[in-house]
Design goal:
single chain, TIM Barrel, Glycosyl_hydrolases_36, about 15% helix, carbohydrate metabolism, about 750 residues, 7-stranded antiparallel β-sheet, alpha+beta, glycosyltransferase
Length: about 750
């Protein structure tokens, strides 16, 4: 058999790099090569329809990772080995292809990448049609192509699924998204977007603190409370509850839902004005929104204030009878969900809107709506917006040229308004996990990566962390994944805090005033309100990609990331504390689960290691404070109980001369210690060797060195240091102001 990297269909088999992906492929499947060994899969039909389902053949005995929409708004992961396990509404499918010689290594504790390559299938947008994948009970892999408009039909699709392969899964995903970016031209890779400044500062969101009962007084109390504890927020989200809305359907008898909404009809509440409601006007603590924003910026030093709104104005859209809204020509439309959505979990929001209707702004007027809203907010001093409920547009495409083009029209209008009214590409997208939105994102650079943090749901906590990590494999190539807020005083606070320290994301809480754990916050936040943000999106390590860290009872979740001069791995036991939606619960796992961490699990470590790296690493273990020196393929055994975590700083050992081996670790009391290091150099002088480090922050600074230095200076002033010859840990205290420090270590 001739081995060809470019995918093809031959004798009823879908072949990729010589590997049979599926058998029994029907003759109506077409393959169109693209670039670099990649291709598009399409299909033909004799009958026109607005929704086709095509068969890609039988897929068996091949490990896969699926990211699928388990409800209208959000994705979660699913792993398996056959087509029957692939969920409906799959938007990302990664397959592991192993040669026969590699099968014996499957259960080995040693990380092995040899004889393994990966196949990526991305269902994409083909003109006005959107594609998703699904399996069948007979192990067939199907793909669904749909427009969302009964009058928008087709008999063929040529670019429904993008398929590519490679031996590095992370590079494969990145290069594939970049090929699609160039070929489709409808979205932009994250490397080509402006990154908002709020990401590098600690924040506070009003949502879980107050829900819709947010008030100016509560906002002031919340900021003041964090300031008094030494963790000044510099980034504020005023979430749902500030807008002028009306509800025509509410009944007093409806029950409260999770402290947030009165009942089903509450989601049909509609916007009546772009200006703030009475809570934020003419009260004793607030003249208006402009006065409030000016006050909190001047008194508390807040740098960024984002205001919440829904993509369609409010949850139920806008109120057509409102005099202030009539200029946008809204009308009531009734959402209709795709069979794919109702095939998984229904959602109370969309169920409500199907019943009561959505006040949809005329797509030809939506540019005016966003510009009016955002220019008003900007005039009040707001710096950006968090835009929620985005996927709702996929349900109202009928009569508007279908779901894809309607979404794209709104997305374009939204992003143009952000550029026009705010300085810093200041938008957080939310409830936007459909490919209609993802592949229409030209400028938006930040998006929520999982369902909400829900403090009252104990079984959701481990799912939240695992879902964001896996979703970031896909989303992290288009946006900076936002891990959502959390509570610093909560049973799982450190679990969430450690994950966000590794996520390369914004760090913000939604604590109620006076209810904080500053011991945890001070491991995330520097005294000036900045954070030590890692450089990439935190993602599962390669050996975790095809495991279920929530429900298989044996696998730990490992998340890797990079700083400027080191790597970092967080390891989390997500077992025994919850179960994925749409999967049956299983017996709880054993009290502790064993695994291992290796420097090899930090991808691209060589890119930050420097030319003088000797291939070994200094590994600092956060909670124990221990330091080990390991070869690249060395490993540390780890045992964690449920909802426990550990963080490992992986610092490449640099050989500066024959006798000096050195690795900077950073601020040892911060979860992401290596994020503090901004620059590193070494000079040889007649009197000896001098290592210079530029670091940010204050506290205990640590480094590995095989030789005790003669002295250390901080900002040219000699400082005492502690050196442990047994493990090579050097520590020096960085006191004073929390800014950039010049550390010199002289040998």
């Amino acid at each position: 058999m001739t081995v060809t990297a470019t995918p093809c269909v031959k004798d009823g088999r879908l072949l990729v790099n010589g590997k049979v992906v599926s058998n029994g492929v029907p003759p109506n499947i077409v393959v169109s090569p693209v670039a670099g060994g990649s291709a598009f899969l399409g299909a033909n039909s004799s009958i026109p329809s607005c929704r086709h389902t095509f068969n890609l053949g039988i897929l068996e005995e091949m490990k896969f990772l699926s990211l699928f929409k388990f409800k209208l708004w959000w994705m979660i992961p699913r792993v398996g080995k056959s087509g029957s396990e692939i969920p409906i509404e799959t938007q990302f499918l990664l397959l592991e292809a192993r040669e026969e010689s590699a099968l014996c290594d499957e259960n080995s504790s040693e990380p092995t990448n040899e004889n393994t390559f990966y196949i990526l299938l991305l269902p994409v947008l083909d003109g006005p049609f959107r594609t998703s994948l699904l399996g069948t009970p007979s192990n067939e892999l199907h793909f669904c192509v749909e427009s969302g408009d009964a009058f928008l039909q087709t008999t063929q699709t040529s670019e429904a699924i993008f398929i590519n392969s490679g031996d590095n899964p992370f590079e494969l995903i990145k290069s594939s998204i970049k090929i699609l970016e160039r070929h489709k031209g409808t979205f932009t890779h994250i490397e080509h977007k402006k990154i908002p400044g709020h990401l590098d500062w600690f924040g506070w969101c009003t949502w879980d603190a107050f829900y819709k009962d947010v008030t100016p007084r509560g906002i002031k109390e919340g900021i003041q409370s964090l300031l008094e504890g030494g963790c000044p927020p510099k980034f504020l989200i005023i979430d749902d509850g500030w807008q002028e809305t009306a509800n025509e359907f509410h009944k007093d008898s409806e029950p409260l839902i999770e402290g947030t909404f009165v009942g089903e009809s509450d989601f049909a509440t509609r916007l009546v004005d772009i200006k703030e409601n009475s809570k934020f006007r003419g009260t004793g603590s607030c003249v208006d929104l402009h006065e409030l924003i000016t006050f909190v910026k001047e008194k508390y030093g807040i740098k960024f204030i984002y205001m919440w709104h829904a993509l369609v104005g409010y949850w139920g859209g806008v109120l057509p009878s409102s005099e202030k809204m009539k200029k946008y020509n809204p009308k009531i439309v009734y959402p209709r969900q795709s069979p794919g959505n109702v095939g998984n979990l229904r959602d109370i929001v969309i169920d409500s809107l199907e019943k009561y209707g959505l006040g949809l702004i005329d797509p030809e007027k939506v540019c005016d709506f966003y510009n009016d809203l955002h220019s008003y907010l900007a005039s009040c001093g707001a710096d950006g917006v968090k835009v929620d409920v985005q996927n709702v547009l996929e349900t109202v495409g009928a009569g508007y040229r279908g779901r894809v083009l309607l979404t794209r029209k709104y997305q374009y209008a939204l992003e143009q308004s952000i550029v026009r009214n705010f300085k810093d590409n200041s938008i957080i997208c939310c409830m936007s996990h459909n490919t209609d939105s993802i592949y229409s994102s030209k400028k938006s650079a930040v998006a929520r990566a999982s369902e909400d943090f829900m403090p009252r749901e104990p079984t959701f906590q481990t799912l939240h962390v695992a879902a964001v990590a896996f979703n970031s494999l896909f989303l992290g190539e288009v946006v900076v994944p936002d891990w959502d807020m959390f509570h610093s005083k909560h049973e799982t606070a450190e679990f969430h805090a450690a994950a966000r320290a590794l996520g390369g994301c914004a760090v913000y809480v939604s604590d109620k005033p006076g209810i904080h754990d500053f011991k945890i916050l001070q491991k995330l936040v520097l005294p000036d309100g900045s954070i030590l943000r890692a450089r990439r999106a935190g993602r599962p390590t390669r050996d975790c990609l095809f495991t279920d860290p929530v429900m298989d009872g044996k696998s730990l979740l490992k998340i890797w990331n990079l700083n400027k001069f080191s790597g970092v791995i967080g390891i989390f036991n997500c077992q025994g504390a919850g179960h994925w939606p749409l999967k049956q619960p299983y017996a709880e796992s054993t009290p502790s689960i064993f695994g291992h961490v290796s420097p090899l699990q930090v991808e691209y470590l060589g890119e930050v290691a420097g030319d003088n790296w000797n291939g070994e690493c200094a590994v600092y273990v956060f909670h124990s404070g221990s330091l080990l020196r390991l070869p690249m393929r060395g490993a540390i055994d780890v045992s964690l109980a449920s909802v426990q975590c550990e963080i490992f700083t992986i610092a490449p050992v640099r050989v500066f001369n024959q006798s000096l081996h050195f690795a900077p670790l950073g601020l040892l009391d911060m979860y992401n210690s290596g994020g503090a290091i901004e620059a590193l150099s070494c000079t040889m002088e007649p009197s000896g060797c001098k290592v210079k480090i530029i670091a940010r922050g204050c506290g205990r600074f640590g480094a590995y060195t095989n030789t005790q230095p003669r002295y250390c200076t901080v900002d040219l002033k000699e400082e005492e240091f502690v050196y442990n010859a047994d493990d090579g840990l050097l520590t020096v205290k960085l006191g004073g102001e929390c800014n950039f420090r010049e550390i010199e270590i002289v040998y």
